[in-house]
Amino acid sequence: MTAAAPIATKHKIFSPARVTAIASNTLLELVRLKVFYFLLLFALLIIGSSFFTSKFTFQEQFQVLKDVSLGAMSIFTWLLGVLATAMLLPKDIEDRTLYTILAKPVPRFEYLLGKFLGVLLLLFVAISLMTGVFLVILYARQQDALANAARLVPAQALQEQLADIRAATFNKNLLPGIVIIYLKSALCAALTLLLSTFASSSIFTIIMSVIVYLIGHIQAIAREAYLASQTTTALTKAFLAIVALLIPDLNSLTLVDDIVVGNAISTVLFVKTASLGLTYIGIYFLVGYFVFSAKEL
Amino acid sequence: MSTPAISIQNLTKVYPIPFKREKVTAVQDLSLTVEAGQVYGLLGPNGSGKSTTMKIVLGLVTPTSGRTEIFGRDSNTVESREDVGFLPENPYFYKYLTGAETLDFYGKLCGLSRAKIRDRSKELLKLVGLENAADRRLGGYSKGMLQRIGLAQAMIQEPRLLVLDEPTAGVDPAGSREIRDLILDFKQRGITVLLCSHLLEQVQEICDRVGILDHGVLIREGVLGDLISIENQTEIILENAPPELLAQIREMIGKSSGRLVAEHRPQKTLERYFLDVTGPKQS
User: Fold this and answer.
1) Which of A57, A256, B149, B155 has the greatest CB tally within 10 Å of its CB?
2) What are the residues whose beta carbons fall under 8 Å from the beta carbon of B74, sequence distance 6 or more?
């Protein structure tokens, strides 16, 4: 008796089915690690912040609620993106699971893309759930404020007051702001994935990713301070230019401050900020792929 | 003549040592062929280059020079892996998946249809004796069960070549024998097996041909029986032989040019004895 011919279908250079299998498996892995428990912490944080602001005016209350909620969303999605991504590759290598996957007809590009898409899906689910919690609490506070106004404000000023309350709660800036928070966390995940392609452990990857995150937040201030100095050398300028090129200015990748103070977010600003995020995500992923494709396993 | 399952030609792999000018040669000018249908044992002490050779065959490591092929296809290409199933040493599959989900995942990676995955999973879970554990998460599997689900995932797309790295490492004697029997079953089905193992007794039981690596160099290679047989000695095992017959044989030997080297009662292996005393009791 001879071995049968392989039953697999003809090999495809790129197979969305294989990428989907890896992505959904990655999402399942992260979900079964019970990473969504942090949502309880998020809900407690924003409900708690609502109680402490009960003595403020409604504008101040909504401002603080948005500030705390969107700030917490930024931090939680960043943490989730970094921690979830940092363990993917080193763990697969350490457990030799990677060998069994790449010993199948799976190109390395598909493996890496599947892993990254799995993290992006996780971040999407997380930010959707947090947005849901945030909107429900914002709506509850708005109803509370509307009921108080109806009870306390004189009839001639009531309609104007109700309109002010509605304008201070929900506006069209919220969604673009949340999209940018998502893109920022995706960018940090892409950066962490890149670091994990040459790092030897998850801990190293996490530490490096946190350092780069901090550099990304302070680099603009540092650059301005150095360039303003009379003693700045050409070498320092070149170094700052390289840092600025490798790591985006993460302070510019947020619209939270504008949303909190009620500034209008123009389409141009949104597209510009989103493009910056998407460009860096693409670059980090591709560099990560080139490092990973040459990696000796 | 049929295409060899594995063809390795003048393979060399040199690893640079980071931050040093020195280099380590893991494999040096290795050439060997594994014919289709053979069980080939790749032996050698730790650090002899077995794992590196295996990884190059699987396309996980790029050779410094030389060429490896799987059924005539360059093993650097992803397509060549359609024909290969691999079980690494001490594998840890995704603990959060059940046995059936694990096979489903690997089946999808091989591009199998949903119906084919279902059929193959059922067949393989039965073959490796994990039908009753199909819906249990791998986190609760014993070492032997993990090795068996590992063999099942390696076989999911019906590959013509199986590469097994220490498939019985850390498994108890009964589990080890089950895995050995599975390998023999694969051989019966015509599947080529490349086996790396330190358990020489097991290699001797199942391999047709072996290659011995030392410091990255293939120092011996050939048909197992030819390599280990002692050319000028003959072994005769008698059952229920009376003392008179034995005396006659000794006398005949004394009169001939031959020499009686040893005379003793054959012993069963410790493994066989262990399995006899710990195996299922017959009523």
Assistant:
1) B149
2) B67, B68, B80
Number of domains observed in the structure of chain A = 1
Instruction: For residue B16, give its domain range.
Output: 6-228
The token pair that represents A60 in the structure block: 């101040």
The domain in which residue A67 lies consists of 16-293
Token reading at A42 = 């998020």
Going by C-alpha positions, the residue among A178, A213, A190 that lies closest to residue A66 is: A178
- 146-175 in B: which are within 8 Å (CB) of A? 150, 153-154, 157-160, 163
**H/E element, B237:** none
Overall number of domains in chain B: 1
State the DSSP H helix or E strand holding residue A17, giving kind and residue range, or none if neither: helix A16-32
Q: Examine residue B127 and state whether it is found in any structural domain, yes or no.
A: yes
* pLDDT tens digit sequence for B137-162: 999 998 889 989 999 999 999 999 99
Residues 40-59 of B with CB under 8 A from A: 55, 58-59
Q: How far apart (Å, rounded) are the C-alpha atoms in residues A204 and B15?
A: 23
Alpha-carbon distance values, A228 to A28, A174, A235 (Å) = 50, 36, 15
d(CA A78, CA A184): 8
d(CA B99, CA B275): 27
Residue A8 lies in a domain: no
Coil vs helix vs strand at A118: helix
Which amino acid is present at B170? G
CB contact under 8 A, A8 and B154: no
Among candidates A278, A112, A261, which has minimal Cα distance to A183? A278
B57 in any annotated domain: yes
What count of CB pairs under 8 Å joins A to B? Answer: 123
Position B72 in a domain: yes
The first and second tokens of residue A266, run together, are: 């123009």
> What is d(CA A193, CA A208) in angstroms, rounded to the nearest whole number?
11
Contact B162/B186 with Cβ under 8 angstroms?
Answer: yes
CA distances from A185 to A116, A124, A278 (A): 12, 10, 11
**Partner B contacted by A104 (CB < 8 A):** yes
The single-letter code of the amino acid at A54 is S
Identify whether A103 is part of a domain: yes
> Looking at A36-45, A86-95, B238-247, which range is the least confident one?
A36-45
Asked if the interface predicted TM-score (ipTM) of this complex is over 0.95, the answer is no
Q: Say which residue the tokens 């296809």 belong to.
A: B73
Phi, psi of B53 (to 5 degrees): -60, -45
**Residue A3 domain-assigned (yes or no):** no
CB atoms A96 and B90 under 8 Å: yes
Cα B185 from chain centroid? 12
- CATH code for position B33: 3.40.50.300
pLDDT in tens, A227-250: 676 666 777 777 777 877 888 888
